[in-house]
Amino acid sequence: MSLGALLWRYLILTGVSAAALAAAWWITLMLLMNAGFVLPARTQSDHASDAAAAMRLQGSFDASLADELCNYVYFAPDGTVLETNLSGRRLADAKEARRTLEGGAWLYQRVDFSDGSLCLFQFDYSVLYGNEALRGVLPDFELVSLVLLAVVLVTTVTLITRHYTRRLRRAADKLAAASARIAEGQLEGGDFSSAGVRELDGAMDAMRTLKENLSGSLQAQWRMEQQRAEQMAALAHDLKTPLTIIGGNAELLAEDALSDAQRANVDAILRNTRYAGEYIASLRALAAGADSADTVKNPEPAASDGAQEHAAPQETERVSLPEFLAEIQAQGQALCRARGCVFRLLTDGTSMLPMRRAELLRALVNLVENAARYTPRGGAVTLESHVRRAPDGAGRAVFTVQDTGPGFTPEALAKGMQPLYTGEKSRPQDGHMGLGLTFAADVARRHGGALALRNAAGGGAVAELSFPVWG
């Protein structure tokens, strides 16, 4: 049923009910009149006319000619009231009628006598109780009957309105509940059946379609995430063997007599093999959906016995910040030198900082490497480290990496921290897998902080890793 049809049904039912009540009231009134419980509205007029006609015929005033339904007042020629059964407002109205020859709230039958006296019979068209005793005890019948009719009519309309209001409310509540389930992500189950109102059914159909589309989209997304996880797990597994071979051969080379330059190269191979092993551990953690609170894998350097697949979670420790930054600076300079750009380090001089050292080192090196990859030759990558202190001693460590490249695209700002995202159209990819920002964001969360991406006002991309510190 359409909303318009429902409203028309409500109006018709209300109108028919009102008409039926009015008809019932009228029939009841007729039955009461036939039974003599009440008198017709013309009764007073008829009695007044009969009494007036009798007095005109007699030619003189005679109170016995007026029965109990006749209200009269007899005036002397000078206007003095000689006899009456009226009082109060009724008598005042009769006096005014004699003076102005016009009635006020009541009607009159006038009888003039030859001696100049005057009799006025007062009446109106109202329904009276048939019993004179009841007329003096009960309230006005017309008032009572009309009040009762109004009460019954209002009650009936209220009940009809409540019925249709509840029907509309049930339909609206059903639609609201369906909308709330979708908003809360509860796409299984729920009542998405017809609401009983055509217009709301259209909205419910749209909700049902939206739920099905969202469910399909989430399932497709879940399958895609599963595929990504499988790809990362396969990649980590495939890289483990060549890294083990590289590490083993580098260790064998380190045992030979080498020149300083050769030993530096071997040390670089061993160091970066260790970093690659840690990177593979990150891949494994992401592929396995590792808990971001305490389950970071921190493998030993890759060696002849292979990178360890599992290691104990790293605990927070107080670290000498200058030494920590010096290690990042060494790697940052090497990375930037290979890209033809400059690495800069800015610090506020903080000496000690609580952190998970290896994790944070890898995260910041990832950010520096990411910045160097997108910085043109002759540009610069800047790492700034400082601690913001509050009056209560609490602070926040902030590490900001900024480059002079083209900056993040809107898509990269929205998706840059997603695993395997490499969709920046304006930047070269150099074969990277899109895990650096993901890992850095994960490390920031494990420190109780966050990674934020933005574009600098003067150009270039900015990645800010921050977390709370105490003491």
UniProtKB/TrEMBL annotation:
Keyword entries, A-Z: ATP-binding, Cell membrane, Kinase, Membrane, Nucleotide-binding, Phosphoprotein, Transferase, Transmembrane, Transmembrane helix, Two-component regulatory system
Transmembrane segments: 7-27
Lineage: Bacteria, Bacillati, Bacillota, Clostridia, Eubacteriales
Histidine kinase domain location: 234-471
Catalytic activity line of the entry: ATP + protein L-histidine = ADP + protein N-phospho-L-histidine
Predominant cellular place of this UniProt entry's protein: membrane
EC number: 2.7.13.3
GO CC term, one of those recorded: plasma membrane
The keyword ATP-binding appears for this protein: yes
Protein name: histidine kinase
The keyword Hydrolase is assigned to this record: no
Top-level taxon: Bacteria
Species for this entry: Ruthenibacterium lactatiformans
PANTHER family in the record: SENSOR PROTEIN CREC, SENSOR PROTEIN RSTB
Location of the region described as Disordered in the Swiss-Prot/TrEMBL record: 292-316
Compartmental location: Cell membrane
Domain HAMP, residue spans: 166-219
Pfam families: HATPase_c, HisKA
